[in-house]
Amino acid sequence: MQTTKGLKLADILTTIVISIVFGIVYKLWGPFYYFVKPFGLHVDQLIYGMWFIAATVAFLIIRKPGVALLAEIAASSGEFIMGSEWGLEVLLYGVVQGLFAEAAFAAFRYKQFDVFVVSLAAIGSTIGSLIMDFYKGYIEALAPWNLALFLLARFVGAVLISGVFASSLVKALEATGVTQMVRSASKEDYEQLDR
Amino acid sequence: MRWDIHYRETWLHRTNPSLKLLVMMSIFILVLFLHNPNVLINLSIGLFLLFFIYTGYPLKYLLLFFLPFFVIFVSTASSMTLFGQGTTTWVQWGLVHVTKESFLRGMHLGFRALTFALLGLIFSLTTRPVYLFYSLMQQLKLKPKYAYSFLAGVRLIPIMLEEFQTVQNALKVRGAGHSGTLEKVKRYAVPLLSQSIRRAQRIAVAMEAKRFSNETKRTFYYRIGFSKYDLMFLFSMIGIIMLSYYAATVFPYIPVTDVR
Lengths: 195, 260
Description:
Number of strands of chain B: 2
CATH class of chain A: Mainly Alpha
Number of domains of chain A: 1
Number of strands of chain A: 0
Strand order of the largest sheet of chain B: 1-2
Organism (chain B): Anoxybacteroides tepidamans
Keywords (chain B): Cell membrane, Membrane, Transmembrane, Transmembrane helix
Structural class of chain B: mainly alpha
CATH topology of chain A: Arp2/3 complex 21 kDa subunit ARPC3
CATH architecture of chain A: Orthogonal Bundle
Number of domains of chain B: 2
Transmembrane segments (chain B): 21-54, 60-83, 109-134, 231-254
Order of helices and strands of chain A: HHHHHHHHH
Strand content of chain A: under 5%
Largest sheet of chain A: none
Distance between the termini of chain A: 26 Å
Shape of chain B: globular
Subcellular location (chain B): Membrane
Structural class of chain A: mainly alpha
Helix content of chain A: over 70%
Distance between the termini of chain B: 36 Å
Radius of gyration of chain B: 23 Å
Number of helices of chain B: 9
Oligomer: heterodimer
Main location (chain B): membrane
Strand content of chain B: under 5%
């Protein structure tokens, strides 16, 4: 197969199919989110981080530039097409969150795949979502203590779900062996062959 | 998503999907920078009428679709109303501090969420994904490898749902105990994801074997163009927006023009 620059059809297809799985999760997460919302004091923000997970998981599986952005856009489109409660805004949120996650991975030249980088990407997506909220939700007009709680809850939730949980999920997937189908052969693989 | 519900095809269904998406995106951005509650309320009424009369679905389904949006309205409006900053105090009770400003801002946010929801719902109820992606390829020059990947992915959703059921039954049969939410997500996600990845790889290989390529010149099974319905759509949207502004200046509901 010829080596082309950028993502190949197999990469794109895999990313999008993974994202559609998460699109379903995103859609189901909506009712769960407004179910916990009435508990007040921004408990809901703790679970907000689930909406960043497509980017981190897809990147950890495929490990190529552009995957995180594509995954987040695809997952939000999937959520949108299925009729999300938030309607059109999920698309724009998806683009912004994906861009910021992608930036985090790019900062390490797409060569590091540990919990730290993934958490950083989750934090990036959180910042992206906050920028959108700043325009959409006037969050700066919340009382200061309330805003602090809001921010803390969202950041902590994002790191726990889209950072720590995402990498443990991919570890479990690696155990099934499917990730070897999609990742390009690494240097270690060639060294194994030489042995 | 196309539901298996019988619906009447209206002019909204015949509008060009790319145009519909772009126009709705523009309205979305307009609403993001709209701070006058009077205009916003009018706009959401206009879109609500469009949703109610012209999406072509039976009344009971429309009401069913609309139910969650009502919850969104309340939940979006509540935290700003209860905890927002303001000067004219209405109620103070412990941490809760309702002011006139925070209440208006909260209501504004509620209507904004409603507008976004209506835009999205009108779009997804009146657009078939297949036509959307064909139109994106033809009008907005989306690369075929992305568009067809999406279409293949959308077709996999029913299979995924079936697999979800299988996993659910398998867990039940094996007496899997109760677990936390994240543990549960993992239990379902690992088999669903691994199967999906395998399937995606197979599809990609099959597509390439059948000479799917990234050529720019290609033919399309569905040719999506423009028609008089697109003009109708464009004018009705402009009409709704202009009427909203006009009515807001002539008959304002509340004497506030900026909620910030």
